[in-house]
Design a protein that fits this description.
Blueprint lengths: L13 H11 L3 E8 L8 E5 L4 E3 L4 H17 L3 E5 H4 L10 E7 L4 E5 L3 H12 L3 E6 L19 E4 L3 H9 L5 E5 L4 H14 L3 E4 L3 H14 L3 H5 L1 E2 L11 H17 L13
Parallel strand pairs: 6-7, 6-9, 7-8, 9-10, 10-11
Antiparallel strand pairs: 1-2, 1-5, 2-3, 4-5
């Protein structure tokens, strides 16, 4: 009989806790005291998404307030937020003027592009420029050759010549956290294989290119196979924001804009809309 692995010991330092968070693909917050008359400035507390803590802010009441405020900060998808303790808890009169900085801890965003045609190649290049870790997948090895992606910023793109679309897609997505997949293959069959794998892996974002008719064909087939309507509602299909894109580069821009909006928890509307309402 195979012995069960021993559970990992809890992290003893904030650095260890951050390393565990990044390695596991989870999220957490690092809170730092940046202004206070009662607490040492610079005191830090790590709070995981499950509420586990490492570090010490110097006062249990202050720690309780900060821990209770962490889930809302993580749900906001903000990278950082500065708040006074008075804003976090109205009854914390003693520490009302204390300022704390919340910082989000998570792995770098990962963009998986399934399909290395004109749109897929443009999206992979644009994603790399925007700071994403990019994986580009195609079953045609000549479409993912390093010679096609040899500029300085393109060197970071992970190129995968897939023997099996579904397997390659699932492996690239991994645990799903922090991952976005754009399915821009050349046909229904390839779309279906990639989408099946993506729905199982549950990345943060799933989008699929194609007309309404083409995408509905694929979605209806997967619904018949047993995927739920709720699962399929998460698929952005047709993919991208409506910016009137025509060229492959414009389509790639529309796709990446939607991915960024989803990552940041925004709707993707015009910033100037308030002036015309």
């Amino acid at each position: 009989m195979t012995e069960s692995p021993e559970p990992k010991a809890p992290a003893k330092t904030i650095r260890e806790a951050i390393d565990v968070t990044l390695n596991c693909g989870s999220i957490a917050a690092l809170i730092t005291i940046i202004q206070s008359d009662q607490i040492n400035v610079g005191a830090k507390l790590f709070v995981s998404e499950t509420g586990e803590t490492v570090g010490d802010l110097g006062n249990p009441d202050l720690t309780r307030v900060v821990v209770m405020a962490t889930p809302e900060f993580l749900r906001s998808r903000a990278e950082t937020r500065m708040s006074s303790v008075g804003e976090l808890a109205s009854r914390s009169d003693r520490f009302a003027g204390t300022l704390v900085l919340f910082e989000r801890i998570e792995t770098e965003p990962h963009l998986i592009v399934a399909g290395a045609g004109h749109v897929g190649a443009s999206l992979a290049r644009l994603g790399a420029l925007a700071g994403y870790r990019v994986t580009l997948i195609d079953d045609r090895s000549e479409f993912v050759s390093r010679e096609l992606f040899n500029s300085s910023h393109e060197q970071s793109i992970d190129l995968i010549a897939a023997a099996d679309w579904g397997e390659a897609t699932g492996e690239a997505i991994g645990g799903g956290r922090g991952a976005s997949i754009a399915i821009v293959t050349r046909g229904h069959k390839q779309d279906e294989e990639c989408l099946r794998a993506a729905l199982v892996a549950e990345p943060d974002y799933i989008g699929m290119i194609g007309s309404r008719r083409r995408t509905n064909i694929v979605l209806e087939k997967l619904l018949e196979e047993g995927f739920s309507a709720d699962q399929l509602k998460k698929v952005r299909a047709p993919i991208g924001l409506d910016i009137g894109a025509v060229s492959p580069e414009e389509v790639a821009l529309a796709i990446l804009a939607e991915i960024v909006a989803e990552r940041r928890g925004r709707l993707g509307g015009a910033l100037s809309s308030w002036r015309r309402d």
